[in-house]
Amino acid sequence: MAVLWLLLAGLPSFLVGVFAWVLIQHFLTTEIPSTLKHPVKLWFIHGMLLYVVTLGNILEKLRICAMPRFLQFLEGLMPINKDPNVLVTDLHFGTIPVRLLKPKKASSQPRRDRYQSLCSLLASETDSVVLMVGYRKLPGYHHPVLINDCQNASIYFLKNLASFGVDPSRVVLCGESIGGWAVAIVTQALTCIPSLPQIKAQILICPLVNFINFQLPSHQQNKNVPLLTRDFMFMCMCKYLVIDPSWKDAILTGSAIPLDKWKKYRKWLSYDNIPRRFWSQDPQPEILGPFNEAAYLETKHTWNAELSPLLADDKTIAQLPETFLVSCEHDILRDDALLYKKRLEDQGVPVSWYHVEDGFHGCLLLFDKKCFSFPCSMKLINAVISYIKSI
Questions:
Q1: Which of 1, 5, 71, 341 is 20 to 30 A (C-alpha) from 135?
Q2: What region holds the Alpha/beta hydrolase fold-3 domain (predicted)?
Q3: Kindly report the CA angle at 386 between 382 and 389, in degrees rounded to 5?
Q4: Cα separation of 116 and 337, whole Å?
């Protein structure tokens, strides 16, 4: 009892100490672009995110709780905004939990389907059926579980569209960030199953499409810009792909890239494919570090199109549906969207592109957070809604 009391008594001091350390680190490393609106607000949000991530890392090192599970616990404490005009139904497609959202208002035509985290708003604003896939997450599950869950749920849904009142000619897949990565991979896979209804369009919002080239201009310009910094992105990547973090420098400098593979795929991966207006005034040369075979062996699975959809062959790319791509100027993944845009256009895929000049990674998630929302949040979501209505 005495030991427990001492621990509880020291907890406030510990939390304050961690907060002070995070605050100093945040002040020294975080970069807020001058063109962003409400910079203090973003600085505060990112500081709180760093604080909870740091607490999660401490709990993980103490073997009390894995960091991802700690973040999921905190996320579960946040209130959910319920739309009275949307009917929500929890189902299971086999063992995969899914959530179906559809407007309560009767529709004269079968509705579209959407896969999107902001599904309640999309359902009501676009008169669509929206399917959320409850894919299994870290820390208990790693690649390819997320992709398999999304793909299997999508196939089940596509085979049973009539029972959900969905028009098979108007199915759209949509995802943001890691969800955009999943949509890109699943859409490529579905093109190889001719017995399924064809996907009308895919919507990729700030997607990740390659795990190979980390020397793109956006990686140089936005590596310390909230809400997705290079360090946080790399930590999540290593956890999900089960890569030893000690290879960080080799991966970021390109030392894990064999010269023969770079020569083969440079035409798709190089920042030569990025419009020059996105380059830095003094861009760093795209030079691979001295080849490290051990680092390559640790990361060679990233050269598969099932992980890096940018590397899919021309035949697969050419079969993809029309695409709506969203990029944000101050996003470390901005250039991934630009590379994929060119890759699709080169194979004749119709692409609509919306670039948020004052946007940053994750701004979409803040669209309904009232005092923590940003003008770019609503601009982005309105662009997505307009596109869905247009098709």
A1: 341
A2: 115-247, 295-364
A3: 140
A4: 18
